[in-house]
Each structure stands twice: as structure tokens, then as C-alpha cells.
Amino acid sequence: MMADWKNTCKVLAISVLCLIFSNCVLAQSTHGMDVAVVVHPDTPVSNVNLTEVRRIFLGDRQYWNTNVPVVLLVRAPVARERNVVLKVIYQMSESQFKQYWIAKIFRAETASAPKLVYSNDMANELVTAIPGAITFIDARAVRPGAKVIRVDGHLPGESGYPLR
Amino acid sequence: MRPRFIPIVLLAFVSTVSAQSAPAATDSANETSIPSLLEHIQRLEKRVSELEDNQRKQAAAQANMTPPAAPERPAMAEPPKPEYPTSAPEVREAEIHYPSLQIRGFGDVDFSATDEKGRTSGFDLGQFDLHFASPLSQKVSYFGEVSFTARPNTYDLQVERTIIRYDYNDHAKISFGKYHTPISYWNTAFHHGAWLQTTIDRPEMVRIGTPFIPIHFVGLLAEGNVPSGGLGLGYSVGLGNGRSTILSRAGDSGDANNNRAWVASVFARPARFYGLQFGGAVYRDKLSPEHGPNLSEWITSGHVVWAKERPEFISEFANVHHHEINSNHTFNSQAFYVQLAYRLPWLENKWKPYYRFEYIHRPQSEPSPDISDLVGSTLGMRYDITNYAAFKAEYRNSRRGIDEPRINGVFLQTAFTF
User: Fold this and answer.
1) Cys bridge to A61: A55, B225, B231, B350, which one at CB 3.0-4.6 A?
2) Is residue B113 part of a domain?
């Protein structure tokens, strides 16, 4: 009877350890899936709230300051980063997103839709090359030296970071 | 011995949960159409040969480069492998070039059948609409819109909008040209593209070619955002020619009198309620109609909109005040509509039922012609065939004028953009 009890305790302890380990692995992989908001190095911004990020990506804020326009770089369809941004920032489906930009241009509110980028590498390259550019990149693929901005005071990988 | 299986079962459970969470994250990706996937694959395949060469060059270049200081960032998981190196021509291609003309078209084909006496049923071509947008510099851009409307023996070509705009910043943008008057939400949100709007037709109070409110405005317009924190305020102020001697038309070729019209509108898009917009506008003009007395005109309007699709809610109200200059008589006409729609979450989100109620009241003594009382309901369904084409079917029940019989009608439309 006592041996059974000890065995059961041992098994439970192992089970708890397994669970903790699995959760750690899961948490680690979730952090790895964060989407970083990256801007051109000269862009005068380093911390914005999610509302402001939304205004920027919706094309409602079109200038960083009087001389620097916002240039939106958006991943092409099927990229996971795009799905995260559609879900969290735009809160739109793929077709709603397309319709939104057609309507935005048609209303003469902007002259062009966001530029499409086809990979994180391309996003990294263009955001560094084009003044005023802003894009979103898989946090694991952000190049060293890139300007990653805080969203709601958090960087990718930190708890409370909204873009994941 | 059985308890020893518990860890294995728990591990299996955790693995299952993680496995299930992964497809959930990519559900929306799977919704993407096959053509865009094929396009993406083709593009990637095209780059394979370049990739092989570039990989060697990149590796050599990176070995010689000292990376700049990285920003403070928590440790991340293993970085993914480079997937698509960017060439210098692509960077140049992505940079903005001036001018950079983009053309988009809208069209629709309609069918109608009503029990109205003297009206025949049948098909008709809706407006064929072309839109031009071209940034001319970092701060100057041009927008144009022309429409072709089928008439019994010809096509009517109209310049609907032509706007040259200078952006100082987000708070001050000034433009000159011909606009859709910002006295109505619908008038500035959907313009002439039937595909953009949920329903087949505009509400009667903002229908093209009717004189209830001035649909077009020729002059200058200043617009922008107002620093207002989470309230998201925006404004537009315009000065222009106002209505021509035909009240449903704008003064494209000159004003009908020496009195300029002006319009001012303000709206809010509160950050806390993403999708909500509400606002109001005032319009002032002096009318010199071809037939009838001169009138001074005050229009006030307001709107409340929930721009998302679950649900979509659009409601507008306008009061048109006319003052007959010679006789001092005043007339007030009112109109409103309420439209409710909901994008159904099933069947690939393609179906969107909607309902609209609209009402117009015009005093019998009102000298402005071509406006009649209206009480009407529209019940319909929109089906999005693709991302760029939709099919719409509507039943309408309406009564125009006083003591007139109600009219029932069925309307179909396929609307698209290209």
C-alpha cells in the first residue's frame, strides 16, 4: 500500500515536471513567433501604442513629421506575419483588407496602397533603404541594428507584447 | 503500473494541444486563394537561380561586415533561414517614382423588374467608372474619376472628380478641383463604384442626379486630422461654386452667381471603438435655378457609422433649409436612412444580408423641383463571388409622394472592380 502511494507520488511529480517543461517549450516558441514592428533607422519614433500602430497601418497617419511621409511595407499573402497583422491591427479578413485599400485610394485619401514585400529579408532590406518606411517582420528574422519599436511599451518577446 | 503511463498521456495531450494550436494560427492563411499562392510560388521559383548565386556572395559579404549595435531586445528563438534575398534593382523598384499613375475601373450590370405603371423590366449597364491616382511628388498627388453612363442613344461621359492635392502634413492638406461634397458620409465613402457599397443603389437622399443635396462641389478644400488623442477628430472645410442653374449639377464651368458656397464638416473615429465614426456637416449656398426663384440654402447633416461588417451600420440625417429671397418664405426638407448589414461567418464569409429604411419629407410648397416624399425599405443579400466581384439581389418596397401606391420591385446587380 505504502509502495503504491510512493509510486503514485513519484508519477505525479514527474507528470508535473513534464507539464512545466512542455509549457516552457510552448512559451518559448510563442515568443519566437512575435511580429516585430520595424522602422527606418532615421524615423523619429521608438515607442507607440497599438492604437497609433493601427492608425499608421490603416493609412490614417501618413506623415512621421512634416518632411517624412510614412511608407508602408506589408507582407504578401500567405505570410504568417501578415496574418498576425490582419488579425491584431486591421481586424480584417484578407478580402476586407484588399477592399479597404481599394476604397481608400478611391476616396482620394491616399495615392497608393502599401508596398508588398515577399519575405522577411526583403522587408529588412527595404525598411533600411526607404526613408519613413515601416514594416513588420518575424522577430527572429530582424537583422542586427534594425530599429524595432516598442508597442504599448513592449518589445517582441516580452510579456504583454500585442503582436503575436 | 498504470500510473506510470500518466506522464506519457500528459505529454501526448500537451503535444496534441500544441499541434492543434499551430493549424489554428494558419487558418486564415489557408483562406487565401489558390491563384495568389501559385503567383507566390512562381515568384519564388523564378528567384531560385538568383538565390544560389546570391547566397555565396552574401555569405562572403556578411563575413566581411561588422553588424551595427542591436537594440535592446530579449533573447529570441533560432532565427529563420534567409528565404528571399533582395536585389538592388528590387529596392529601387520599391522606392516611389513620380509620377506613378494607377488606373482602376469599376462596373456593374443590373436587372430590374417592378410593378410601377409605365416602367419596363430588363437589364441595363450601370456606370462604367475609371479612377486615376498618381503621386506627383512626396507631397503632391492627383486623383481623377470619370464615368460613362448609358443613355438611350449615347453614353454620357462625366468628370466626376478631378483633384490636385498638396499635403503639408497630416493636419493640413489642401486641394483644388471637383469633389464629392463632404456633406454626406455616403457621398465621400463610396463615390461611384457600386462594388464598394453593400447595396445596389445609393440611398435616395444622396442618389447621383437628384437635387436633395449637392453631390458635387467645385473649388478648394482643406482637410486633415485634428490632434485630439483617442477621439480621432478630422475636419474638412471647402469653398466653391456650389450648385449650377440645374440644381443636381455642380458649377463645373463657372458659378451660377457671385456668391460662393462653403462647406465644413467634422468627424470623430474614437480609438477605443475601432470601426465607429460619427460626425456632422454644414453647407451654405445661394441658389439661382434655371426655373424658379432664387433661394438661400443651409444644409445640416449628421452621421453615425459602424464601419465593420459584423455588423455594418450606416445612418445619416440631413435637413435642407431653403429661404426664398424675394418672398421670405422658408422651407425645410428632411431625409434620413438607416442601413444594417451583417457578414455571415459561414460559407467562406461570402454572404452579407442587409436592410435599409429610408425616408424623405419635402414640404408641398417647396419651390425646388425633382424632390418627392419617400418612404422605402430595401431587403437584400450580397454575395462576394471573388475579392473583386459581387452579386447582389434586392427586394424594394417604396412609396413616392403623398397618396401614391406602394411600388414593389426586384433588383439584381453584379458589380466588380478591375
Assistant:
1) A55
2) no
Number of structural domains chain A divides into = 2
Q: Which residues does chain A have within 8 Å of residue B84's beta carbon, measured at their own beta carbons?
A: 118-119, 121-122
Respond yes or no on whether the N-terminal peptide bond of residue B182 is cis (omega within 30° of 0).
no
Q: What is the pLDDT of residues B245-295, one digit of tens each?
A: 999 899 888 998 999 999 999 999 999 999 999 999 999 999 999 888 999
User: Residue B305 falls within a domain, yes or no?
Assistant: yes
Residues A130, A92 within the same domain: yes
Contact B376, B398 (CB under 8 A): yes
Cα B282 to Cα B299: distance, rounded to the nearest angstrom: 6
> CB of B56 within 8 Å of any CB in chain A?
no
Nearest CB partner across the interface for A145, out of B3, B68, B74: B68
Is A157 part of any domain? Answer: no
A139 membership: H or E segment, kind and range? none
Task: State the total domains in chain B.
Answer: 1
- Considering the domain architecture, whether residues A86 and A138 belong to the same structural domain is answered as yes
- From chain B, the residues in CB contact with A7 under 8 A are 3-4
pLDDT range class, residue B366, cuts 50, 70, 90: confident
Q: Which domain holds residue B177?
A: 162-417
Per the domain annotation, does B95 fall within a domain? no
Q: Is the pTM of this model over 0.90?
A: no
Q: What is the pLDDT of residues B13-65, one digit of tens each?
A: 444 444 444 433 344 444 445 556 656 656 665 565 465 545 545 544 544 44
Rg (CA), chain B: 28
Residue B297 pLDDT = 96
Residue of A nearest to B349 (CA): A93
Rounded CA-CA distance B26/B24 in Å is: 5
What ipTM score was computed for the predicted complex, to two decimals?
0.78
Q: Are residues A52 and A129 in the same domain?
A: yes
**Domain-embedded: residue A122:** yes
Q: Is A155 on the interface with B (CB under 8 A)?
A: yes
Taking CA atoms, B330 is separated from A126, B211, B256, B361, in Å, by 61, 17, 21, 15
| CATH assignment at residue B261 | 2.40.160.10
* B309 touching A (Cβ < 8 Å): yes
How many CA atoms lie within 13 Å of B304's alpha carbon, on the beta-carbon side? 6
Cβ contacts of A91 on chain B, cutoff 8 Å: 274-275, 308
Q: Which residues contact B80 (CB under 8 A, 6 or more apart)?
A: A120, A138, A140, A141
Q: What is the CATH number of the domain that holds A59?
A: 3.40.190.10
Domain containing A115: what range? 35-151
In a domain, B27, yes or no: no
